[in-house]
Amino acid sequence: MEEHTQFDPAQQPAATGDMDPEAFRRYGHQVVDWIADYLANVSSYPVLSQTSPGDIRRSLPVQPPVHPEAMEAILTDFDQLLVPGITHWNSPGFMAYFAITGSGPGILGEMLSAALNINAMLWRTSPAATELEQVALDWLRQMLGLPHPLFGVINDTASSGSLYALAAAREAIPDVQIHQLGMSGRAEVPRLRYYASQEAHSSVDKAGIVLGVGQAGLRKIGVDDAFRMDVVQLEHAIQEDIAAGWRPFAVVATVGTTSTTSVDPVPQIAEICERYGLWLHVDGAYGGSAAVDPEMRWVLAGCERADTLIVNPHKWLFTPIDCSVFYTRKPDIVKAAFSLIPEYLRNAESVGDEVPNLMDYGTSLGRRFRSLKLWMIMRYFGQEGLAARIREHVRLGQLLASWIDESPHFERLAPTPFSTVCFRAHPQGIDDEAELAVLNESIMNRINAAGHFFLSHTKLHGKYAIRAAIGNLRTTEQHVRNLWGELKTL
Ligand code: PLP
User: Fold this and answer.
1) With contact defined as beta carbons under 8 Å apart, do 272 and 301 qualify?
2) What is the pLDDT at residue 132?
3) Which residues contact 371 (CB under 8 A, 6 or more apart)?
4) Predicted structure pTM score
5) Could you count the other beta carbons within 10 Å of the beta carbon of residue 160?
6) Is the beta carbon of 155 within 6 A of some atom in ligand 1?
7) How many angstroms does the Cα of residue 129 sit away from the middle of ligand 1?
8) Which residue is closest in CA terms to ligand 1's atom 14?
9) Which atom of ligand 1 approaches the CA of 257 most closely?
10) Pocket test for ligand 1, best of 95, 164, 203 (most atoms within 8 A of CB)
11) Read out DSSP for 265-309?
12) Which residue pairs from 365-369 have beta carbons closer than 8 angstroms and sit at least 24 positions apart in sequence?
């Protein structure tokens, strides 16, 4: 950003009111120029911020500003003081956790949403936001090959979505009436149990803590060699729990687990849920997006039988964070778990069913206009464009996996159904797990310190595994070749 440290009195804001529209236009252009340059040059920054803890905080004044400051000075500080403390999720070398992209149309959508600054808590507080959310989520449903009807709502995160899904599952237990009566001190409420694989995301555990079911209420089910839930163990656990007096109420299946991106066998899990009357929630936060490619539809097989399903466009559908889609076949039960209308929010539309009030489907009252960016992304890329990008990421992931498989010095530690590769260096003659863990951690740390790539790790069957997650729109085959080149020299 241009450096203007001089304070220009002509730019001093008035004593009251907002920024002058012409000043907004000028700084708006400057900010858009900064964004365009940043996105064009993002690979020139170290991917993982190289600052030390406390550096950024120490560079900022302790005292708040009393007098107005020039926008130039504020933007200069943003560029010079804050950007060094940014880890560049937009970088083509970002391959840690799950790689994401704040795509151009998505960023523009966010800008418009910030400018409108609406709160879509009720239909009437911005009809376009509520109705666009319904239209955009129905488009996404069609792109994913999911059946009609399916009610959708956008939450901030998958963590919120899983919490809401399990709250609905708890509400669906006959004769317990937790919305009305709560759980505490009620001897007649059975001990509640839900199930997820050992590979499920920690947000599934946290939901149980918040819902008063506790960590003891979640029974973790073992996985097969490909890290998928073992359905024989699942059914056995349910039967054992029933015999011991537990009340099973839900199963969480994951399509695209966090460590290895394994896909639980949802059709078989759905069958078990139907047999025992359990709520089926599917966490497709990562893997669900892949189904926009018709060749990858297998990912969501069986999900048409799920009671609730989450898919995060902010993970692998190029949508700026945050945007997590929550689908349900049973909106009435989700509503029964959450709906509560204080007098000041009562309105004519809350009576009928014609339009939903989105505040009824979770704990948040206020909600941002998140559907705008998703709608713009779906229109700008189209299903073909989104599918082509997902396919390319999968191709790059498979390419890296094939080089690892061919190398005598490296090994893959899990199947690669999508574009996330779990692997480790395993030189001949070193077979001690602790020694291999130290070696691989040091390889990963050296890659991350070099600044071109950011990788993360996991543990698989007790083995330290490096993860390379490909999912950024700027990542090309050349970047993947460069990563492999760096790995081989360490
Ligand atoms: N579920 C899965 C499978 C994930 O991998 C993650 C995060 O990586 C989450 C849920 C949590 O996502 P969020 O940050 O949207 O809560």
Assistant:
1) no
2) 97
3) 129, 132, 133, 135, 136, 137, 154
4) 0.95
5) 19
6) no
7) 25
8) 157
9) 3
10) 203
11) -HHHHHHHHHHHT-EEEEEETTGGGGGGSGGGGGGGTTGGG-SEE
12) 365/121, 366/119, 366/121, 367/119, 367/120, 367/121, 367/129, 367/154, 368/113, 368/119, 368/120, 369/113, 369/116, 369/118, 369/120, 369/126, 369/129, 369/132
Q: 134 and 348 in contact (C-beta within 8 Å)?
A: no
Structural contact between residues 288 and 318, judged by C-beta atoms closer than 8 angstroms? no
Pocket test for ligand 1, best of 283, 299, 326, 422 (most atoms within 8 A of CB): 283
* Confidence grade of residue 125 (pLDDT, cut at 50, 70, 90): very high
DSSP-assigned letters across all residues of 405-450: HH-SSEEE-S--SSSEEEEEE--TT---HHHHHHHHHHHHHHHHHH
Element (H, E) at 466: strand 463-469
What tokens does 193 get? Answer: 């149990």
pLDDT for the residue 5:
44
Handedness of CA 27, 30, 35, 36 (dihedral sign): positive
With a 6 Å cutoff on the Cβ, whether 381 touches ligand 1 is no
What's the pLDDT tens digit per position in 341-370? 888 888 887 666 778 888 899 999 999 999
405/142 Cα distance (integer angstroms) = 37
In this prediction, residue 415 carries a pLDDT of: 98
Q: Is the CB of 123 within 6 Å of ligand 1?
A: no
Q: What is the pLDDT of residues 35-52, one digit of tens each?
A: 999 999 999 999 999 999
Does 201 sit in the ligand 1 pocket, CB within 6 Å? yes
156 exposed, middle or buried (CB, 10 Å; 0-12, 13-18, 19+)? middle
pLDDT value at residue 404 = 98
Sign of the alpha-carbon dihedral angle for 36, 37, 43, 45: negative
Residue nearest to atom 7 of ligand 1 (CA): 258
Q: Would you say the CB of residue 170 lies under 6 angstroms from ligand 1?
A: no
Question: Does 157 sit in the ligand 1 pocket, CB within 6 Å?
Answer: yes
User: What are the beta bridge partners of residue 422?
Assistant: 467
Please enumerate in sequence order all residues whose Cβ is within 8 A of that of 410, keeping only pairs 6 or more positions apart, or say none. Answer: 404, 423, 424, 425, 426, 487
- Axis crossing angle, helix 477-489 with helix 433-450, rounded to the nearest 10: 130
Tokens 């509503």 label which residue? 335
Name the nearest CA neighbour of 73 among 107, 30, 115, 119: 30
Question: Whole-angstrom Cα distance, residue 477 to residue 397?
Answer: 10
Mutation test residue for ligand 1: of 155, 315, 419, the one with most atoms within 8 Å of CB: 315
Please identify which residue in the block is written with the tokens 């229109």. 379
